[in-house]
Every structure is written in structure tokens, then in C-alpha cells.
Amino acid sequence: MVSTTFLNLNDEKQARIRKALIDEFSSRPLAEAEVAPIVKQAGIARGAFYKYFDDLKDAYRYIYGVAMKDIHIRINQAVAKGEFEPDFYVKQVTAFVDGVSQSSYRDLVKMHLKRNESLIDEDFDDVNLSGRQWAAMVLSHQVIKQILLNPKERDVLIKRLRDVLMQLARKGD
């Protein structure tokens, strides 16, 4: 878990470290990542890295968590309201996939999907979701993964997602 020492750093230094983490974990799988390029780019001592994070896996969990939190803010707000609008999910998937190409998280997310997903335990707070919300979450994540790894299939996958979500909307919980 990221240390309070890191969280108490000034914004500029935190941003430099986050950028170095994104760059390292976007260009190399977690199993091949190294501390040296991170500390060099961030302009910090190796010892400081270990003061902020337990190890590379801890640093990866932190930066991937930051990325996912940024990405999911609007979705979480709509889900908390108990809404199930198929078009909302389709729009969110489309916006994410279209926006990820211009995001500083693009390569991080792609590397996660290709090489790191199985190395990190992800805690989804999905036990309180309705059956439809849970299904929409699972389907949306799978469609995002498939599109990011096979961009030319985007339109077919978005249509398939919309069709399945419309069926779920008709059936109810």
C-alpha cells in the first residue's frame, strides 16, 4: 500500500513519480519492470522509492488504481443511483475506448490487459450490484478489453454489447 509519506509529498513531486510509474508499467510487463528507470525519471533516490512503496507490485497497484479511479468516476455515480440504461453503458464503453487513445493511461491499460491482469488481485465491490448491473459490468469490461486489443473489431463489438444489454433491459432482474 502506498505510504502516507508519498501522499504527503507536494503535488509536483507526486505527479513526477506517477508519470514515471505510468511510463515504466506502460512499456514493460510488471514481471519485467525495474525500479531504476522509475527513480531516474522521477528524480528520486532508490531508497525513497521503497519509502513510498513496498515493492514494484505495490507501485503498480497504486498507479493502476489511480487510473481506474479516474476512469470510473462517472460510471460509479450512475450505478450508485441504481440506474440500468443500456445506452449509458454503451456510451461509457465507447467514450472510454475512444478516449483511451488520447489518455496518458492508454499504454498502461493495454499492458495490464495483455500481461499484468492475472498478476494483480482486483477487488470489485460488485456484491451489491443488481444482476443486470453486474452483467453489464462484466460485459463492458470484456468488450473494452477486446476492442483495445483488436481495434478493428470495435463497431461489431459495440453493436453486440448494445444488443445484449437491450435484452437484459427487457428481462429485468
TrEMBL record:
InterPro entries: Homeodomain-like_sf, HTH-type_Tx_Regulator, HTH_TetR. It comes from the Bacteria. Residues 34-53 bind DNA. The keyword DNA-binding applies. GO terms for molecular function: DNA binding. Keywords: DNA-binding. The keyword DNA-binding applies. Residues 11-71 form the HTH tetR-type domain. This is Transcriptional regulator, TetR family. It comes from Lentilactobacillus farraginis DSM 18382 = JCM 14108.
